[in-house]
Amino acid sequence: MAGLEVLYSGVLGSVSCAQDAAVCFVHWEIIKSGFKCLGTGDQPRDGEKKSELLPAAWNASKELYTLRYRSSDDKSNLLLKAITVDSTLIFNFMDSATDRVTDLTITVSDYVDENSLQTFDSVFKNTEDLVKKLKSSLLPAAKTEKKEKRERPPATDTRPNPDHDPLRIPSRVPPTARPPNWTDPMAPFAAGGADLDPFGGRAGGMIVDPLRAGFPRSGFDPTGGIPGVLPPGAVPPGARFDPFGPVGRHRPGPDPDHLPPPGYDDMFM
Fold first, then answer.
1. How far is CA 37 from each of CA 2, 77, 115, 169, 255, rounded to the nearest angstrom?
2. Per-residue model confidence (pLDDT) at position 145
3. Which of 66, 174, 201, 209 is the one with CA 20 to 30 A from 110?
């Protein structure tokens, strides 16, 4: 309330009704929000200066009060209108820069004692409630927006990776435990390369893999099966397979000389 008493004392001679006192109170709350008054009426006039005081003829009309304000940094111009309707005052506040409008309706007798207009100590009542209503309903338009622009994080590329397959199940094997990439199995001297050069990243150790040893392989593919021995698909693709028995030909039948006909021992026939 600091400063309101000085302001009210300066206009005390022109205060003649409860509406005048209510407008004076609202004017001071606007001043406290960082604005200065320019004058009366809707349009600016020559020679106007910003001031904390109420201008001359500010309450010439008891039905409509019109006051203009400008922020201390000259970035916002505000227009206040207070309309008397029976025992109430309708405050209308507009920001000319943003055309934002706020309003508040109060019952004058709830906040002004009309019988004490000439005594500042008792003219206003329930001031905390009135200030609360002003800040929540009327004064938001009077607050200059000084919010610093927040630095936006760099935009991330949200385009899908063409190599990404959402249906692929990722491997649970950690990268360090995954088997090393094999070199070309047909490369000469691949077997034993890692033993000869352990830090060279070469593949092939002491255990020779028939399919990855580096020696030429025959055209035999165990995954296709072995007629009469293994059905197709019995050996998984890429699995190590040690053939048992001859591959690529049937077992030979018995030697005819092993079982000659009974009673026949002519070895030259």
1. 18, 10, 28, 70, 128
2. 43
3. 66
For the domain spanning 4-142, the CATH number is 3.40.1000.30
Specify the pLDDT at position 162. Answer: 62
With a CB cutoff of 8 Å and minimum separation 6, the contacts of 72 are 34, 35, 36, 50
CA distance 249 to 229: 11
The total number of residues shown for the chain amounts to: 269
**What integer pLDDT is reported at residue 39 of this predicted model?**
94
Q: How high is the pLDDT of residue 97? A: 76
The Cα–Cα gap between 67 and 38 comes to: 8
**Helix (H) or strand (E) run with residue 195 in it:** helix 193-196
Using CA atoms of 113, 116, 122, 126 in order, give the dihedral in degrees to the nearest 10: 10
Q: What is the DSSP letter of 188?
A: T
- Tell me how far apart the alpha carbons of residues 224 and 226 are, in angstroms, rounded to a whole number: 7
CB count within 10 Å of CB 76 equals 20
- Strands 100-107 and 88-95, by their bridges, are antiparallel
CA distance 83 to 81: 6
DSSP-assigned states of every residue in 228-260: TTB-TTSS-TT------S-SSSPPP---GGGSP
Phi, psi of 149 (to 5 degrees): -70, 125
Confidence (pLDDT) at 139: 75
Q: Both ends of the chain: CA-CA distance in Å?
A: 142
Alpha carbon 90 to its chain's center: 41
Quick one: DSSP state of residue 257?
A: G
Q: In the chain, which stretches have pLDDT less than 70?
A: 1-2, 140-222, 225, 227-229, 238, 240-269
Q: What is the pLDDT of residue 149?
A: 40
Predicted confidence at residue 83, as pLDDT, reads 95
pLDDT of residue 20: 96
Instruction: Give the pLDDT score at 192.
Output: 62
